[in-house]
Amino acid sequence: MKRLRWQLLIVILALIAIAVLLFSQKPITETISEVPEPVTGGAYTEALIGDFSRFNPVLDFYNPVDRDVDRLIYSSLIRFDATGLAQSDLAESWGISRDGTVYNVSLNQNATWHDGVPVTAADVIFTVNLLRSPELPIPDDLLRLWEDIEVEALNDYTLQFRLPEPFSPFLDYLTFGVLPAHLLEDLTPEELIDAPFNLSPVGSGPYRFQTMIVQDGRIAGVALRAFEEYYAGRPFIDEINFRYFADENSAVAAYRAGEIQGISQLTPEAFAGSSPDADLSLYTGRLPRLSLIFLNLDNPNVPFFQDANIRRALLLGINRQRLINRVLDGQAAIADGPILPNIWAYYDGIARVPYDPEQAVKLIKEAGYTFPAEGGAARTNEDGVALSFTLVYPDTPEHTALAELIQENWQALGVDVKLSAMSYDELVDYYLDPRLYQAALVDISFSRTPDPDPYPFWHQTQATGGQNYSMWNDRQASEYLEQARIVADPAERARLYRNFQVRFSNELPALPLFNPMYTYGVSDQVQGVRMGPLFDTSDRFATVTSWYLFYETGIVTEATATPSP
Question: Is 4 within the bounds of a domain?
Answer without folding.
Answer: no
